[in-house]
Amino acid sequence: MYRIVKVLNNNVAIVRDASNQQAVIMGAGITFQKKKGDLIGEDSVERTFTLRNKESQNNFSTLLKDIPLDFITTSYEIIERAITNYHYPVQEYIYVTLTDHIYLSYQNLNKGTYENTALPNMKADYSTELSIGKDALVLIKENLGVAFPEEEVGRIALHFINAKGTSAVVTTDVRIEKKMILLVQSELSASGIRRTDKNKNYYDRLMIHLNYFLERIMNESNETEPFSLNFEDTLKKDYPRAYQIGNRIYELIESHLGKSLNENERIYFTIHVQRLL
Fold it and tell me: Ranges for the PRD domain (predicted)?
């Protein structure tokens, strides 16, 4: 049996299991007319998983309120297949970022606002991640009935590249995080980029990425393998303004934290910024 900690919607709840461990459970209508403290039987639960990181729990809870169950379970299945079929280790925040990405892409396709930010050729260096991305598009078509553009293979692959590694229980200095986020927002504003109704989804995604990035840096877990130089050179050539802004953000964080950052972050910042230009 599971005891409800928080009802997120009719299909999803945060619960505690028999061992008093917190988990997220999913199932069609499992929380209908239920409230905090009520019990849910295991036989009605379709999916269950745990998030040890408090920040991941909070962000995932926020996302789940607005994202339909089938998108959540599809994202979960993509990640679990990557772990099982490709023996690909992931940090748990990918459950947040990938779910968010898939639903946002779906919304943009439906509204006709999908934007294709071309990515450099990744075949030589990231064949495993691209295979995961291709499998993901098949699952999305099967589960959601939506044919995502081929460009999404690379975008999904990037999520796995960024989240490669193992999760750890982390501690963060909230004051430092808030200060760095304000500094980045100030840098974006100085470059003419502000949060608007039109760009708020992409702007918020950058803030989520920044939040997880700061967690990794402050807990000395910034061990992602670097992108190939060709990848960075191509982005620098194709998106010079986004690269300049992304590089300034990279150097700003490095300077204020006094830590050497993973070169990958310069690329991720560039991609996020390009979507805002």
Answer: 66-167, 168-277
